[in-house]
Write a structure and sequence with these properties.
Layout (H helix, E strand, L loop, with lengths): L5 E12 L2 E12 L3 E5 L6 H8 L7 E6 L2 E2 L5 H7 L1 E3 L12 H13 L12 H21 L15 H14 L4 E5 L7 H16 L3 E5 L3 H7 L2 E6 L2 E6 L1 H6 L1 H8 L2
Parallel strand pairs: 3-8, 3-9, 6-7, 7-8
Antiparallel strand pairs: 1-2, 1-4, 4-5, 9-10
Helix pairs in contact: 3-5, 4-5
Function: Probable component of a branched-chain amino-acid transport system.
Protein name: Probable branched-chain amino acid transport ATP-binding protein LivG
Keywords: Amino-acid transport, ATP-binding, Nucleotide-binding, Transport
Length: 257
């Protein structure tokens, strides 16, 4: 049920590809300042749900509310402006550019506008101060994920885990409230994974909200307050990890297999 703490509310979302129902009437709420896990077997519709929520796809039916606003028809950059961003299952860093350049480019990309929007007569000074702020924030985030020493390296030279961190860093740069992370731990080594999880908890305590698709059940069960289980384009179950682990339908459809 929807409460004051609800930051995201999706209602009866539907998406078909050709004749295939990828998402067939999905509804759920996400509470502010939580880490919620979205799990389910391959093909369950998790990535499609992410794409629908973040405006990458337009749904065939249903509604997405972000902070009580109907954002169903907004594009990704408009959502980023409002504080809703996502990362991708396959990270999309650009080779031939440094880590730092990737960060700065991401800002323009996600916002779909650039700081230059404010380059109007008389606005120069504010652009300079905005740029300085952006650079400071960029370095802060790179330090947070221990990427600062790699700032001037070609992004193509990063390890799989570091690419994941860069992807998350890029999303954070837009100063979002809600982040949707598609398999953030894939390819991340155990040491880095531990650090990344610690960072997520710190960020949650600072007021960020996370919805995470992750295959590693340990990660989901140990770090999420709430788990949503999808199966065949539907929500099969939703609840605290302990309840989910004992849910017969979930065990049959996913955990038992
Ligand atoms: P998950 O992320 O849970 O593995 P997906 O959302 O990727 O699931 O896929 C759900 C279903 O929709 C699958 O049957 C998949 O093959 C299909 N699907 C997803 N994206 C597309 C697409 N762009 N075109 C056609 N079919 C798609
Ligand atoms: Mg997927």
């Amino acid at each position: 049920e929807r409460t004051e703490q609800t930051i995201l509310h999706v209602s009866d979302l539907e998406k078909q590809f050709g004749g295939i129902v990828a998402v067939g009437g999905v509804s759920f709420e996400i509470e502010r300042e939580t880490i919620t896990g979205l799990i389910g077997p391959n093909g369950a519709g998790k990535s499609t749900a992410f794409n629908l929520i973040t405006g990458v796809y337009r749904p065939d039916g249903g509604t997405v509310y972000f902070r009580d606003e109907d954002v169903t028809d907004l594009r990704p950059n408009q959502l980023a402006d409002r504080g809703l961003v996502r990362t991708f299952q396959i990270s999309r860093e650009l080779s031939g550019m440094t880590v730092l350049e990737n960060m700065l480019l991401a800002f323009d990309e996600q916002r779909g506008e650039s700081l230059w929007r404010s380059v109007l007569p008389g606005a120069r000074r504010s652009v300079v101060s905005q740029e300085r702020e952006l650079l400071e924030r960029t370095w802060e985030i790179l330090e947070l994920f221990e990427l600062d020493h790699l700032a001037h390296e070609d992004a193509a030279t990063l390890s799989g885990g570091q690419r994941k961190l860069l992807e998350l860093s890029r999303a954070l740069l837009t100063d979002p409230e809600l982040l949707l992370l598609d398999e953030p731990m894939a390819g991340v080594n155990p040491t880095l994974e531990k650090k990344l999880l610690a960072r997520l908890h710190e960020l949650r305590e600072q007021g960020y909200t996370f919805l995470i698709v992750e295959h590693d059940m340990e990660v989901i069960m140990n770090n999420c307050e709430t788990v949503i289980v999808m199966h065949q384009g539907q929500v099969l179950s939703k609840g605290p990890p302990k309840t989910i682990q004992e849910d017969e339908r979930v065990i049959d459809a996913y955990l038992g297999g």
